[in-house]
Amino acid sequence: MSDSLPFLTTGLPGVGGVIKSRPEDFFVEELPSYEPSGSGTHIYAQIEKKGLGTREALDRIARALNVQRRDIGTAGVIDAQAVARQWISIEHIQPERLEQLSLAEVRVLKTSRHTNKLKPGHLRGNRFVVRLRQLAMPPEEALTVAEKVLAILTTRGVPNYFGPQRFGNHRNNHLLGRALAHNDAEEFMDEFLGRPNAEFDSPAVFKARSLYEQGQYEEAVKNWPHQFADHRRALRAILAGKGKKKRGLFTVDKHLQGLFISAYQSDLFNRILANRMPNIDKVLQGDMAYKHDNGACFRVEQPEAEQPRCDRFEISPTGPLIGQRTTRLTGPAGEIENPILEAESLGESESGHMKRLGARGGRRSLRFQPRNASLKSGLDDLGPYLELRFELDAGCYATTLISEITKDRTSETTEESAGSEG
Prior knowledge:
Distance between the termini: 18 Å
Shape: globular
Largest sheet: 9 strands, mixed
Strand content: 15-25%
Number of strands: 15
Structural class: alpha+beta
Helix content: 25-40%
Mean pLDDT: 93
Low-confidence stretches: 414-420
Radius of gyration: 23 Å
């Protein structure tokens, strides 16, 4: 994700500041799509975790209960650097076992029963309480500026950019996805195993990538850190195939390949959204408009008739999640979007590769609206802070909203957004 993606509120200064000075500074609570019914074979538990990612929390719970990790249902994934409340489900287990669970950094708040397993997407949204510290101006001044920014964002919407974690620690997941879409094994392996970057790579990873670039594949295998199993496995396959890089591609986990394709979709969406800025609250002829009440899309034929609905935040213009099921824009809207897509040379063959890796295609709103938003300044043991409270729909990034207030995209760290698209 580019640090230069345009802000909507460029006419107002940033208040600066940092988030997540400690986990308590970033509180998030899932808002489920439905409440457990109270009966059924699946036990639902609301857990609270502190400074622990969802995947690590599930691993610990699975070990403690002697169940398989895959048997634990969740609606979303939440960042480690937070205090987070979310729901999990496990079938055919006594609720007392969950209620008595004693784990460091994880506690069970309440349990209930339901008739089905909790799955990704069973999520209405998330509630956030975020404290900004080390502000670039006095707290009261920051509060005044932030209130002006938030008023614009609530009325016009927040640019619905995909956050930086989509693009990986090496910031190249979208490039890997593009190579997969074009079935270019050589380009994929060169990006996956080579192209060292001292800004993002640890010293060990930098060395492993450098050795690959030099053609020293055996030495590169030895230097990839243990947790990079896919990288080591791909290198061994290339060695076994006497340098044929397609052999390496065959070994890369299909789920991981799907994440790369998703990052490619996300990058294209972000680029097109940036081209529509700052007019994300204006529908054009030929747009596919998103209906916020039910998620359906329709073609805009008469923008002047639809604009009042857009002003009321009933509908919004959309950008593409590219794939076989992506509806292309026409007219003035298409003149903005289509040149970017056409430059990618994505034909039926490329769309087929993407579909096989889970990217069906679709459209995504260019903006989102924060709900129940409020601000206040305060003082605690770490000093002055600016506190933001708001609710967002699933799939929207809190840090994208926060960066409009701070005017600092580098603060958009590793927040993970629940929900799947494309």
